[in-house]
Each structure stands twice: as structure tokens, then as C-alpha cells.
Design a protein that fits this description.
The chain is α+β, with helices and mostly antiparallel strands and 241 residues long. The protein has 6 helices and 5 strands; from the N terminus they run H-H-H-H-H-E-E-E-E-H-E. Helix 1 runs parallel beside helix 4 and helix 2 runs parallel beside helix 3.
Length: 241
């Protein structure tokens, strides 16, 4: 996916999230984020987007501190609108330097655009469930990109690599796009994941299979129709942070 598409996705899914959040109301529970309300969900995304603005403004990361959203619901929505507009403006040049706390990402604005496109999309799912259940279906290419970003960029950056004392491989297969990823799981280490061609994954110890949309939800811990086989302990290190 190109940079312009990521920026369009940020706007599109943030708009969808906002619509669902307003319809649900600030005090509505968010079933996919236990103990969260819609107000907290909106505040979280607004705070993250303010953090991105700071990370782009200071590529050293020394002053990359997020803002604090107002408590009043209407003021919180307005502040979020401001942060989103400021972030999208700050993300205009993909090759510009930026601070990121994730070690496996290039330290550029383009990395933040990709990360924030999927941040908005996944939290849009949460807002939709708070309103009346899931009503959004992700375009297969976008969903596959989100799976790839999590498996190949975000998870290798995790500081906490604790998990079950089990080793093996997991094949993640998007049936509609043909994308396949093979994750190698070892105790005490972050998963090592790479895209693989059809027929080159050998015999994995576990599999996760479904449409790209279903896999996207599954790897991010949202309700999904993806199916898994094999040792379920091998899937634990692939859970989104």
C-alpha cells in the first residue's frame, strides 16, 4: 500500500469510529476492550494521535509526550478532531524522519502513517461493537497489510517476550488474497515472521486460516471467523500487544 492510501485510511476509519462512538454515547461499554467506555476509547485514540504529532515534531523522541484529552465528552471529541487533523498534516512527507518506539520500523513518517491507519481501523471495530455490533468489512488488501504489519513489524518490537515454553511454527494464511506468513516461535524470544510462497512453509505445527478480514480481526484479538488448528500455545506469542 502507498502512503496516500494510508492517510486516506486514517481519515476514513477515524470518521467511521467517530460516527459509531457518537451513536453509542460516551458511557457505552466497549465489549472488545473490557473495562473501557466509548469515552475512554475516543480519548485513547486522540492521545495516541497527539503522541504521533510530538514524535514527528521531535525525531529524537526526547519530547514525544502525548497530550491529555479533556474529560467533557463534547470537548474530548473536539480535541480528538484537532489531533487527527494535526497528525495527518504532520504525516505529509513519508520519508521525513520521525521517532518511533518500535525497533523494527524505519524511523520515518511513513511508518507512523501505516501504524496509525491500522490503529484507527482496529479501534473502529471496537466502536462498532459498542454501538450495535460489527458492521464494517475491510478491503482485503488493507486487511492483509494489517496482518503483515502486526506479524512482521510490531510483534518483533515487543519488549515483553515471555510466553509458553514451546517451540514450533505457525502458518497464517489469507485465503482470499493468497498471502501467507510463517512465524517461528521460541521460548523467551519474539516471534520471527516472514512472508512465504505457496508450498514453501513445510509442515507447520499450527495454522490460522481465513479471509484477510477474518485474519486481521483474529491477530488483533477481535471477534473473527478465522479458524486455527494445531497446538494453541503456539498462537499466544502472536497475540497483539
Amino acid at each position: 500500500m502507498d502512503h496516500a492510501t494510508y492517510l486516506e485510511s486514517i481519515q476514513h476509519h477515524s470518521d467511521g469510529l467517530r460516527t459509531a462512538a457518537v451513536a453509542a454515547g460516551p458511557d457505552a461499554p466497549v465489549p472488545t476492550c473490557p473495562d473501557w467506555t466509548v469515552s475512554r476509547l475516543v480519548g485513547h485514540l486522540a492521545r495516541v494521535q497527539s503522541w504521533v504529532c510530538a514524535a514527528v515534531a521531535d525525531p529524537t523522541g526526547l519530547n514525544a509526550d502525548p497530550g491529555r484529552p479533556p474529560k467533557d465528552w463534547d470537548e474530548r471529541l473536539a480535541w480528538w478532531d484537532e489531533q487527527r487533523a494535526a497528525m495527518c498534516a504532520a504525516l505529509a512527507e513519508p520519508a521525513a524522519p520521525a521517532w518511533l518506539p518500535f525497533g523494527s520500523y524505519p524511523k520515518t513518517v511513513g511508518s507512523w502513517a501505516r501504524r496509525q491507519a491500522h490503529e484507527a481501523a482496529i479501534h473502529r471495530i471496537d466502536a462498532e461493537h459498542a454501538r450495535n455490533g460489527n458492521t464494517v468489512l475491510f478491503e482485503p488488501g488493507f486487511a492483509a497489510d494489517g496482518v503483515d504489519e502486526l506479524l512482521c513489524r510490531l510483534l518483533p518490537s515487543r519488549a515483553d517476550v515471555s510466553g509458553p515454553a514451546v517451540s514450533g511454527t505457525v502458518l497464517v494464511h489469507a485465503t482470499d488474497t493468497g498471502h501467507r506468513w510463517l512465524a517461528s516461535i521460541r521460548p523467551g524470544a519474539a516471534p520471527e515472521t516472514r512472508p512465504v510462497e505457496n508450498g514453501t512453509a513445510g509442515t507447520p505445527d499450527a495454522t490460522v486460516i481465513g479471509t484477510a478480514d477474518a485474519l486481521y480481526r483474529a491477530v488483533w484479538g477481535r471477534p473473527s471467523h478465522a479458524t486455527s488448528t494445531g497446538d494453541p500455545r503456539l498462537l499466544e506469542p502472536l497475540a497483539a500487544p
